[in-house]
Amino acid sequence: MQDIRRTLVAKLINDPAEFIGKTVDVKGWVRSRRGNKYVQFVALNDGSSVKSLQIVFDLAKFSEEQLRPVTTGASIHVQGLLVESQGKGQNVEIQAEELQVYGTADPETYPLQKKGHSLEFLREKAHLRPRTNYFSAVLRIRHALAYAIHKFFNDKGFYYFHTPLITASDAEGAGAQFQVTTLPLNEVPVDKEGNVDYSKDFFGKMASLTVSGQLEGELGATALGCIYTFGPTFRAENSNTPRHLSEFWMIEPEMAFYEIEDNMDLAEEFIKYCISYALEHCKDDIEFLAEHFDKELPERLKFVVENDFVRLPYTEGIRILEESGKKFEFPVYWGVDLASEHERYLVEEHFKKPVILTDYPKEIKAFYMKLNDDGKTVRAMDVLFPKIGEIIGGSQREENLDKLQGRINEIGIEGMDWYLDTRRFGTVPHSGFGLGFERLVLFVTGMQNIRDVIPFPRYPKNCEY
Ligand code: ATP
Ligand code: MN
After folding, report:
1. Nearest ligand 1 atom, CA 450
2. Does residue 4 carry a pLDDT above 70?
3. Which of 61, 246, 300, 331 is a Cys-bridge partner for 458, taking CB atoms 3.0 to 4.6 Å apart?
């Protein structure tokens, strides 16, 4: 048997016309085997589709002995004729002519024997869960969304801009940072005052993993016009929630000459584009996830694409929450940083639509946001989604040097000279936002827990592989 190429199972199932009646090669992993003493049916999955291809082994052609290693989890190569299937549950099948077994999987020890393992069980076996239908569906959708994001920005003339993962800037204030050091932890060098002597450290100063690429992104936008970042970010906060990871991917577009309205328009168009892309290109996977986990998923996705997001000032949002008569766990008052329950009330119960909340009190937002004329609020815009809460956080940036400098002094941040140069030299109005990639994947897959939409989740007390 020639072993030079394979045809993807997705192609054979979804677009079989050109292959029917022809000999094809398929390679993949056995999901299941059943049958009788005349014929055996093997479901073969090669990762290209949530659907498995049925392979029919005629026991007049193959011996029991030959088929013994073909058990769940084994990897095989089959050559055979693709035919229209007589049976229920599939449109085509392969009548096997030749079989090659690459690797066996001992049924006594292979952990993914039965269908329908719980998501918790699979999280324990995270190194093998890409072989399950649920997780491979999530991973294919994740891939499609990543591609859609690059396509969206590229088609709009944005440049993909790489900001550093190791940073010496601590100013974003978005979250606690993981320190990066090569100092010996059992014998940390100290200076005369007894403080850690970072001049002896690898970079000669204190360094950390980035929590956001935004500030560096602004350097890109004030030169290239419109840029976006798409990379990992790290937050050392002890957030054991279904929406927080310690390592997550973030997309941060930053646009020169954009005011907050332009920023909102872009955020809404962007997120709708990504969801539409997934609806169009991941039909089978979305259908599968809907069937097994979340019946309303396709409707919810279409609804978001087809409806305008509500745009509402924070002050109005607080009023609605206060007048709701609802008992929240955390109190509501003007100036409070909204909790997820507040965000979800506005989105799921009051408006029943995604909401862009704007003009937050300056005290609860980052120093770089543009101050409104009222002197109390800033031009922030958070996009709030059903089931997720905050999916995007963004703002128009303060472009006035004196105001920004004033705010930096007020808060007492140091080492920002490089950042202030964007305002010192040729400053422009500009805006940007950050989308948490896993929160988008969470929404599009309908999964409940963010740990189930990234291959190797990192969270407090968990760093496997
Ligand atoms: P939250 O209030 O939900 O913790 P945040 O205000 O800290 O979010 P930003 O600093 O504005 O979030 O980050 C931008 C986006 O990154 C958020 O809108 C969210 O989608 C995502 N995000 C933030 N923190 C995390 C995290 N720990 N894990 C996954 N995604 C996150
Ligand atoms: Mn946070």
Report:
1. 29
2. no
3. 246
